[in-house]
């Protein structure tokens, strides 16, 4: 009986010495050996032929060109420039994106617009003929829904052009306003 009792701990000791997860490791090794890849070998790239460039006849930078002459000369000044000697009104120093049309006062044909300035957070009363914004914008029409301005702006050639800008009720005009020509 004592021999049997000594045999049980020896068997347990022998099984405890075997590597942990030995069957899992053996399965992984056999699976890796049997696995085959299904990749195709890469094909070599095709050589592209370079495109032929045939430049036009050499250009002489000092030669006479009608096109250069046209672009160098400013066009005849069109449009009437604004009166720069006129004293500026208070809201001409504020850009249009900081002005907001908030309402009207008056009745019938004579409406005055209420303009809120974001610079000083005050509400100003303006009429047709007053100026707004930094582009010489003159108020040409006031309705309960919008104020219409006629701006005079200078283009890259020094020509003055007129454009209409509409300030809708309750909205500020973005830095690039919707322009009606």
Largest sheet, in brief, is: 5 strands, antiparallel
Tell me the series of helices and strands, N- to C-terminal: HHHEEEEEEEE
* Tally of contiguous helical segments: 3
Low-confidence stretches: none
**Distance between the amino and carboxyl termini:** 115 Å
- Return the average pLDDT rounded to an integer: 82
> Based on the structure given, which CATH architecture of the domain at 90-176 is correct?
Roll
Number of strands: 8
Please tell me how large the radius of gyration is.
Answer: 43 Å
Specify the CATH class of the domain at 90-176.
Mainly Beta
Strand content: 25-35%
Which outline best applies? elongated
Structural class: alpha+beta
Main sheet: which strands, in order across? Answer: 4-5-6-7-8
Helix content: 10-25%
According to CATH, the fold-level topology of the domain at 90-176 is SH3 type barrels
Organism: Simonsiella muelleri ATCC 29453
Protein name: Pilus assembly protein PilP
Biased composition (Pro residues): 41-50
InterPro entries: PilP
